[in-house]
Amino acid sequence: MKITAKYVYRMDDITPEMNWNQFWKYIELFKKYGVKPLLGIVPDNQDPELSVQPRNQNFWQIMRDLYAEGAVEFAQHGYHHLLDVGKEGILNGIFGFQPKSEFAGLSYDEQYNKINAGKKILNNEGIYTDVWMAPAHSFDTTTLKVLVDLGFKAITDGIALYPYKINGIIFVPQQLWRPRYFPFGIFTICLHINYLDDHFYHIVESHLKSGAEFISFSEARSYVAGIFGTIANTIFRIMFILARHSIKTIKKG
User: Fold this and answer.
1) What are phi and psi of 20, to 5 degrees?
2) Strand-pair category, 169-172 with 164-166
3) CA 150: distance to chain centroid?
4) Looking at the domain covering 5-252, what would its CATH class be?
5) What is the average pLDDT across 83-102?
6) Degrees to nearest 5, angle at CA 204 with 201 and 206
7) Would you tell me how many other CB atoms lie within 10 Å of the CB of residue 124?
8) Which pTM was predicted?
9) pLDDT in tens, 62-78
10) How far apart are the first and last CA of the chain?
11) Structural domain boundaries in the chain
12) Cα–Cα distance, 142 to 42 (Å, whole number)
């Protein structure tokens, strides 16, 4: 069997107040090429930076309709998306994500109450998912315990080449913020659609029609690393950290 890279697209910050023009533009693009993106829905958006257009009162029905069409999959993207905890999560320090969080550093009960409240909002609107998408890529070991207790099975995050497990939860790595090409591995490309321009749209379309292989998040979950993948993950993490260090050194120079 030929080993090739496989790509997953995810769209973050999906809220009733998002940039709807951009949202539909990318949804139609993914439909055109038969790609099913993972939508990170904020259950109760309180982040003013994510409120870029008037609230769409049909938001939840639109989400249900897209899922019924088989056009999208869902992840729970935090609760309020308020990054008001100045703590580093598991990924923040070593991989360079910003030291801010909605959850990292809070007690078990505080995190449980927030995440469960968000889950209930989604469920009450007919949105069911066992996938977690952390705002700002920030969560800690307590978050993982809460997620397990609330029935979450997978997280879209982590720096690696292949999905891996921690405490029974599958991490499908998210390493890219724009299309890149690799010979092998599972790569998730994160799109913050509120602020993307026309040039970026054409970059994504070129990627979609390039002949690369695209899979859904659900499909990606099945590629949990074996021995080869675990070794590859370790090497990739080291290279990622070294590349980040080199970039910081160049900028300082």
Assistant:
1) -70, -30
2) antiparallel
3) 19
4) alpha beta
5) 65
6) 110
7) 10
8) 0.90
9) 999 999 999 999 999 99
10) 46
11) 5-252
12) 20
